[in-house]
Design a protein that fits this description.
The chain is of the alpha/beta class and 325 residues long. Helices cover 38% and strands 15% of the residues. It has eleven helices and eleven strands. The strands form three sheets. The chain has a seven-stranded parallel β-sheet, with helices on one face. A two-stranded antiparallel sheet has the order 1-2. Strands 6-7 form a two-stranded antiparallel sheet. β6 and β7 form a beta hairpin. The longest helix has 21 residues. The radius of gyration is 18 Å and the shape is globular. The relative contact order is 0.15.
Length: 325
């Protein structure tokens, strides 16, 4: 597995996002998910991503079980800030310093580790000055509980304010062939300027870009994607047209649409390290192999024609109010 640098932190070029193993995408199978994580480590996927709100709380426990006895093989990332109750209900976005400290201690306990490699502010709390939140996060680094800090779904002005308190190692935001906002909203520019790595989440468009979802009937009735605008009846066919064209390029190269989508994110920025999620070993291995795919300038130009910025129909989320603006 090739490596990428997020600031001074070395990670596998392709990581593994664990959210869907415990929440949002239908019934869970912890035994199968643990096997996926362990197999990922076997083949050199070292970058494992979770968050306290996934489950809620249960995904960190799952990841902790999966990496037990193999901690030194893992670059472990988790997040705080999207506050939920144990029953899954939403409390809100919380960036208060006392919450930062309590959330970190709780994550360490659930994960069964003595430190977190990369700790993200999951969402920006607009009711708390970012300097106060990051002051508490810096304390966690000083205490040895956290090694590196990250921020998720933040824009350039917020990133600069946080970075002034403590260096940011990684920015995590949605980025894929149908979510290219970081290219045009200044995030890539500020990341390059400040030597901050970028971690694309949902690099496969929540599964859409794999070509495996051909209708909403392919989704479990409890799947949260039923509520997402890009999966709606009025937008589905238009977005599927993107996938069909990507598949033509993939077929010509003898690879899968998912691998093209992941290889594209790697080629777009040398400091990108995407974290596709899956609950199947075969899919994880397929995703990991994308790090070996070479795309020519002609390939990249063809993909850009198919999926320019703004091509997807519909918003990323049903409610975009939690995204920094």
């Amino acid at each position: 597995m090739k490596k990428r640098m997020l600031g001074e932190l070395e990670v596998s070029a392709i990581g593994l996002g664990c959210m869907g193993m415990s929440d949002f995408y239908g019934p869970r199978n912890d035994e199968e998910s643990i096997a996926v994580i362990r197999r990922a480590l076997d083949i050199g996927v070292t970058f494992i991503d979770t968050a306290d709100m996934y489950g809620p709380f249960t995904n960190e426990v799952l990841v902790g079980k999966a990496i037990a006895g193999r901690r030194d093989e893992v670059v472990l990332a988790t997040k705080f800030g999207n506050e939920r109750k144990a029953d899954g209900s939403w409390v809100g976005i919380n960036g208060k310093p006392e919450y930062v400290r309590a959330a970190c201690d709780a994550s360490l306990l659930r994960l069964g580790v003595d430190h977190i490699d990369l700790y993200y502010q999951h969402r920006v709390d607009r009711t708390v000055p970012i300097e106060e939140t990051w002051g508490a996060m810096k304390e966690l680094v000083d205490a040895g509980k956290v090694k590196y800090l990250g921020i998720s779904e933040a824009l350039a002005p917020t990133i600069c304010k946080a970075h002034a308190v403590h260096s940011i190692t990684a920015i995590q935001s949605e980025y894929s062939l149908w979510s290219r906002d970081p290219e045009v909203n200044g995030v890539f520019e500020v990341a390059k300027e400040l030597n901050i790595g970028f971690v694309p989440y949902s690099p496969l468009g929540r599964g859409f870009l794999t070509g495996a979802i051909t209708s909403k009937n392919d989704l479990d009735p409890s799947d949260r994607r039923h509520t997402y605008p890009r999966f709606s009846d009025e937008n589905f066919d238009a977005n599927m047209a993107i996938v069909t064209k990507v598949k033509e390029i993939a077929d010509a190269k003898g690879v899968t649409p998912a691998q093209i989508a992941l290889a594209w994110t790697l080629h777009m920025n040398p400091n990108n390290a995407p974290i596709p999620g899956t609950r199947k070993i075969s899919r994880m291995e397929e995703n990991a192999a994308a790090s070996d795919i070479s795309l020519s300038a002609e390939d990249m130009a063809a993909i850009d024609q198919i999926a320019p910025a703004g091509v997807a129909v519909g918003e990323r989320y049903p409610d975009m109010s939690t995204v920094d603006a």
